[in-house]
Structures are given as structure tokens and as C-alpha cells.
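Now read these lines:
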Amino acid sequence: MKKILLSCLAFVAITVALFFLPFLFPVAKTPQGDIGLPWQIELDEAGQTRVFGLYPGISSLSDVIARFGEEMEIAVMVAANIPREEITNDAALEGYYNRVSLDFIQTRMVLSLDAPQEMITAMLARSINVEYMRNGSRKFILHPDDIRIAKTMPIAAITLVPNARIDAEAVASRFGRPAEVITTGENLQHYLYPDKGLDIVLDSKGKNILQYVAPAEFEERIMRPLRPKT
């Protein structure tokens, strides 16, 4: 009888411990299952797209963090070989994930923010450090106050750099027939989907890139840089 009583008490103790364990040691939240895959792009009646649960041009950086987690770097980036006197004209405010899982797809993700240039210039002046990247670009580490400001800014573009390579056949199978294909340089082909706000860049000698913008901004952000300068 005594052994039965002890067993019952032990069972109750374990049950109570299991109940309170999540409160004592919280488990990190994971993204919801409706984040979606790169080709799952929704288009609403207003012509706005939704991908990974986000609206390019509308959703803020905080919305991105809520879906993919706090492990994001936020910085002002300056491309390589930009003279010091021209830094403020070339600088871009970005958020960056070194690794994101989209179901079975592993990718890097870059969030370009729609921030006024004068705001970026002020953030550069307040930056607390600068790091030099392998490709020669510079990463300016933001002051904590500016990180909080950056999180409120809307995302202008979502850029993915998948670990796995894709080819033209896979692009057509997953995304459909592009409206146009433009070749730039010797290695790059841009598969363009204006109605989806999507530019897929296939690089025969490097990483492939997928860039999502609001369809209304496709001409300005994607097509204009691709056109030959006159």
C-alpha cells in the first residue's frame, strides 16, 4: 500500500512539473506554417502582393522580425569602391538574415528598407563602428536608437539568395512563364514577372537571386536599373 501511495505521489509531482516547465524555461517561438514558399505569391484586388506573409512596400521590418525571429542584423550598407564623398548617396538601410528556412528551402534573406536618404545619412553619422566585407562593401553598425527607428520602416524589397541552384526549367515550372527575360553582362539572366513584383536572376557562374517588390514599384526598382544608360 505504501509503495502504491509513493507511486501516486511521484506521478502527481511529475505531472505538476511538466505543467510548469514551459513557464520556467520558455521554448523559442517558431514561425507559423503559413509563411509559404517563394512561388506562393498572392495578389489582392488592389494589385498588392503578399509573400511569406509580408506585403512589400507596406509591411515593416518589425513585421519581418515577428515572422522570422530576432536573429537579424540591421545596418547601413555601402557598396565597394564608393568614394568617401559619395557614401551618403549610395548608402542603403538593410536588414539581413544569414539563414532562413522556407520549408525545405534554405536561403539568405536581405530586407531593403524604404528610408529617406537624409535619415540614412544621419544614421551613418551616428554609427558606432564599420566592418569591411569580403566583397569590399562596408557595413556601418547602427546606434541602438537607430535600430529601433529602422524596425518601424517599411520594406521596399525582399531579396532571397537560396543555397540550392535553380535553372530556367525550374523557374518556369514553379513561377510560370515570365513576361520578359533580359540578359545583362555575360552571366546574368533576369526572369521578370511585373504582375508579381518579382525578378529572378539566374547567374551561370554564381548564386541565383529572387527579388520581390510591390508591383506598383516594379518599373522604378527593377526595370529602370536594367535599362541601358543613355
User: Anything to note?
Assistant: The first strand starts at residue 42 and ends at 43. The two ends are 95 Å apart (CA to CA). The first helix runs from residue 2 to 24.
